[in-house]
Amino acid sequence: VCGLMVAALGRPFHLGMLYDCRSDSLVPGVTLWDPEDLVKDTLENSQHNTEFNIHASDSIENKSSALNIEASLKASFLGGLVEVGGSANFLKDTKTSKKQARVTLQYKTTTKFKQLSMNHFGRGNVKYPYVFGQGIATHVVTAILYGAQAFFVFDQEVSENEDHQNIEGNLQMMVEKINCFSVDGKGTLKMTDDDNAKAENFSCKFYGDFALENNPVSFQEAVKVYTMLPKLLGERGEHAVPVQIWLLPLTYLDSSATRVAHEISLGLVQETQTVLEELSGLQMQCNDLMNRNVTSHFPEIGTKVKDFKDMCLQYKSIFQTSLSEILPLIRGGGKGERELAEILKKKQQSLFNSNTLQKWLDSKEREIDILQIIIEVMKDTTMLTSEKAFDIEMFKSKAKYVVCFAFTSLNDKEPYLRHLSEYLKTLRQDAELPRWYFLKDVLDTMRRQVYLFVNFAEANKDSANAQFLSTSVSGSGHKGGKIYLYKDSKKQTDNFEPPSKPGKLRAIERTHDSVTVELSPPKYGSSEVTEYLIEYCVDEEYEWKEIKTPKDNIICVVSGLRKINSDQWDDQLYLGCEVGGYISSNIPCHSI
Fold first, then answer.
1. Phi, psi (rounded to 5 degrees) for 577
2. For residue 554, what are the contacts with CB-CB under 8 A and spacing of at least 6?
3. Which of 298, 384, 413, 424 could form an S-S bond across to 471 if both were Cys, CB 3.0 to 4.6 Å?
4. According to the model, what pLDDT value does residue 2 have?
5. How many CB atoms lie within 10 A of CB 28?
6. What is the CATH number of the domain that holds 403?
C-alpha cells in the first residue's frame, strides 16, 4: 500500500477526514467512522523540532520547497485548485518589481504527531462503508503532524544607482542577525544605531499560523514578533495547527473505492511552473515600466503597457482555468497527460508564447529608454502630457511664436496588442510594422531634430516673442518626431527646421582700412534666416561695431577701418530669424 504525505497549507485537516487527490480537495461532512471511535483509538506522540531558514529566492520552486510541497500538489496549486491559508499565503506573495531586493525568514516548529490505530482499518471496522461507492474521495487522513510556521518577507527598493546584489547581501546579513537581537522586560528592542539605520528602508510582510494583534511592517517590529513566536503556540502547544498530512488510499480499505489512475509527470509540472513564472516576470517588468517618469510625460505609453499587463493577467487566468479542469480528469483516468502537453504546446505556438511577449515588452522598454534620454536633453522645455494640455497652453500663451517639438509616433496603433485582445485562435500572425524606435534613419533624424530644437530654445531663452513646448500628437503621418511652428496660435508648419548657429567669419582679403569676409551660413535651417549681423572690434580700445547684411549676401566688406593686423581683429557672426532673435556663432550648444 502506497500512502501519501502532503503539506497542510493552512487547510483544516483532522484525522479520519476524506480527501480527493484528483483535485487535491478536502471532503468535509462525510466520514468512515463515528467521531467517538476516532478519538478513542487515536495515538499521539510529542514531536518537538524548530527550524530557522533564510531564503533569498522568490521562485515558485523555492517557496514550494520551503513548505514541503511535492510536485502533484504544486500542480494543483498552480492550477488554482488549492485554496491555501495561514503561513501558506506566502506562496501567493510575489515581488511586484525587479527593483526589489527580497530576503525571507522562515520559522518552523512542530509539537506533536497524531495517528489512527490499526483498530480503524479493515472493512469490518468501517462504520459507513457505503462511502466507498460514492466516488467522492480517493484517500483518508490517517496521521497529522502539528506545529506552526511563519514567514517574514523583507523587501527593500533598489534605486537606479544602487547595486541590487549588494543591497540584497546587506539585507540578508541583517536577517541572519535576528537571533542575536533581544527584547528587554519592557518590550524595548536592543539594536545598535548602525543596525537601526540599515533597517530603516526595510519593509516587512508576515504570513503565519500564529494569531497576532497586528502584523509587523518594519524590521524592528518583525524582530519583536519573532522573539514571541514560541509563546504564541501556548504552554502545551494547544494553538498548533496541521502542517503535514499522511493519506491512505481508500482502496486499502475497499478495492472498489475510487483510485488515482495517473499522476502528473514532473516534467509537465515544471513546464507549467515555468509558464506562470514567466508571466509573473512580465508583470514585474510592466510595473517597473509604468513607474518610469516617462509615462507621466507620455501617458499613452503607460496605457499600452497597462493594457499589455492586463491581457497577460487575463491569459494567466484562462491558462489556470484550463489546468483546473484537466488535472482532475488526468488523475481520474478520464484524460491522458497528452491533453496537458497539448495545452502547453498551444500556449507556446500562440501569440502568448513567452518569446513574443518578452520581445514586445523589451521593445517598449527600448522606446521608454529613448524617450528618457530626450526628456533629459529637453529638461528646460515645458512638457505637455496631452493635446488638451497643449491647447490650453496655446490659449494662454502671450508669445507671438510657439515652437513645439511634437512626438508623432507615440499614439501609433499596436497590431500585436489588438491581436492579444482578440485572443487569436489561429497560429497565423500578421506582419508587424517596424516600430519607430527600431528604425535607424528615424532615430538619426529625430536625434538631429531634438538637438536643433534644444539649441534653438537655449539661444532664445530670453526672447519674449517665442515659447518652446513639447508634446505628443497623433495622426501626423510622421515617424518619430517633428518640430511644429505656430504663429499667433495658428499652425504654420509641421516641418520647421530651426537654424543652427552660424560658422565663423573667414577673412578672404585685406587692405589698409578694410576686410572682406565670407559668412558661413548655418548647417541646418538656413531657409529660416532673415539676415546676418556682423559684430567686430579692431582693438580693445575701440568699441564693438555692427553691420547688417541680407541673408543671400555671404560676401561682405567691412570698411572704414584704421590700419589693422590679424592679431587685433576680433569678430562674431549672428544670424537673424523671424522666430526668436539673433543667434551667435560663439554660443555653446549640443553637437549635431
1. -135, 140
2. 518, 519, 520, 521
3. 384
4. 63
5. 10
6. 3.40.30
